[in-house]
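Protocol step 4 of 6: structure prediction from sequence.
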Amino acid sequence: MSRPAGRVLTLLELLQSGGTRTVAELADRLGVDGRTVRRYVDHLVDLDVPVESVRGRYGGYRLGPGHRLPPLMLGDDEALAVLLGLIAGRRAGLTAAGDTASETAAAKIRRVLPTPLARRLDTLLDSLSFTDDPRSLTGRPGERAPAPDAGVLLTVADAVRHRRPVSVRYVDGEGRRSERTLHPYGIVAHAGRWYVTGQDAGLGEDRTFRLDRIADARSLPGTFEEPAGSEGPDGLDPAQRVLSGLATAAYRYEVTLRIHGSVEQIRTRLPASVAVLDETGPTAERERRVELRAERLDWLPPVLASLDRPFAVERPAELRDLVGEFADRLASYARRT
């Protein structure tokens, strides 16, 4: 590519970042004079890129709406974000234009990616799984989780693919920092968050970590033994490992219930990421033991009411009180005219 052509593409990338760019700013970024900037703009207009001229003291150039989408200039992180969004949207059934449009869009982006990045992306996609249930009802404050660092995500994915140990610097929910050696089994997307599940080599125990809390990750020499069977050493695939880990996490309250219903009825309101359910024996309606942990209890009475199944609270006593108060409120609302 000639240098002028490269500068024209750089100009397009600058305009695509948004806002109005002055001629002086563009000339400085491109290392040319103002007349050359105007000539490059003319090149873009000849290519049907909708560049608008803005007059006035703070005038310059900006991209306007056009009759077709102009060429997009994406960085590595941006391309990764777009592709993961297309894949996640298709997985969740959220693509309005149908599977064909999302597949062709993803194919176009992947076709022009640098080869090393394309290989790392393929590795990530091979290592990624999604949970079936996007809800999270653990009662923790509902903050939006930050996205994981792209470099961390790709490094962990490569370790999953090649069964390599990986050293991670982790910050837990209480702000405690630690460095761990992880044998990662898989990456899982659940309820708007990214998780990696695997064995903490220092403890010799399985653990699940939030990827946005990993500050740094680097591959270590050697390999670790692949989990027995295709679904891991305990018979659970990575997604099920994450759901099981979330359901048994150390929250403030330990709740035990007895609910009369079928597995399907109970799971509609208490999914596997929230509760451990006795699913042994026939799946038909019967009394089943349900255990869960939660940081707060106030969300549970409405959930239990929405089940519309007979239930009993074994523990804690505070939950019995909350259920009684919720029932009294509903009764008072019903008596209103």
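Step 5 (inspection) to follow. The CA atoms of residues 50 and 64 lie 5 Å apart.
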